[in-house]
Amino acid sequence: MTGLFITVEGGDGSGKTTQVNMLAEYLRASGREVVATREPGGTGLGREIRKLILHGEDMCPKAEALLYAADRAHHIATVVRPALARGAVVLADRYLDSSVAYQGVARDLGLKEVRDLSLWATDGLMPSLTLLLDVPVSVGAGRVGGTQDRIEAAGTAFHQAVRDEYLKLANEDPQRWCVIDAKGSVDDVAVQVRAAVRPFLEL
Ligand code: TYD
């Protein structure tokens, strides 16, 4: 039996983590095995990589891209593929589209190169559904607050490029992507998320 792989994407402060947790609870209540996980940091190795990328010393863009890819390779091999093989629903808070938007486009490393790197790292694993929680950059920045990590501190033009790229990716592949207006309340967004997932689970 193979499970279902769903990824959740969006800019910083778009509310992905809250929505992943709410969706996980909702699906568990229907009796499914749900693995809610995230990148970077879905494994022990990944948590070390996460500290390096987000709170370590400054690094060149290629080193950043390779660290995200290393996190992803280990996460897919040791958490996601085994869960899918058991028939679980895997909800990932960010996946390879984050690398495409942040490193490929906003850091200007090249969309194709960065996507190919992730596809190599994961042996080509693609999600069945990707939810884009879309908010204007100013709304996301307002929600982040507090001390910013290295990526959050990258500036408005960087985050605008990320948002634009996500919307472009979604527009190019509407079969896989579902764009959700995430400006509203948590409950309002959760309703849209459930509606998007329902056809994939016959709920
Ligand atoms: P995340 O923990 O999802 O942060 P947030 O909750 O603020 O969205 O992700 C950490 C940061 O890493 C986030 O700023 C986006 C960035 N990121 C990339 O640049 N490339 C990637 O491949 C991934 C997975 C994340």
What does this molecule look like?
The protein has 203 residues and is α/β, with parallel strands linked by helices. The chain has helices at 16-29, 44-55, 61-86, 96-106, 111-121, 137-144, 156-172, 186-201, and strands at 4-10, 34-38, 89-93, 129-134, 177-181. The protein has 8 helices and 5 strands; from the N terminus they run βαβααβααβααβα. A 5-stranded parallel β-sheet has the order 2-3-1-4-5, with helices on both faces. Helix 3 runs antiparallel to helix 4 (96-106) and helix 4 (96-106) packs antiparallel against helix 5 (111-121). The chain is 57% helix and 14% strand. The longest helix is centred in the middle third of the chain and has 26 residues, at 61-86. Residues 12, 16-17, 39-40, 54, 68, 93-94, 98-99, 102-103, 151-152 line the site of thymidine-5'-diphosphate.
Mean pLDDT: 96
Subunit arrangement of the protein: single chain
Q: Helix coverage percent of residues? A: 55-70%
Helix count?
A: 8
**Which structural class do the helices and strands define?**
alpha/beta
Integer-rounded radius of gyration = 16 Å
Kindly report the spatial arrangement of strands forming the biggest sheet: 2-3-1-4-5
The N- and C-terminal alpha carbons lie at a distance of: 18 Å
The small molecules bound here are: thymidine-5'-diphosphate
The stretches of 5 or more residues where confidence is low (pLDDT under 50) are none
What can be said about the biggest beta sheet?
Answer: 5 strands, parallel
* Shape designation: globular
What order do the helices and strands follow? EHEHHEHHEHHEH
Q: Strand share of the residues?
A: 5-15%
Number of DSSP-assigned strands: 5
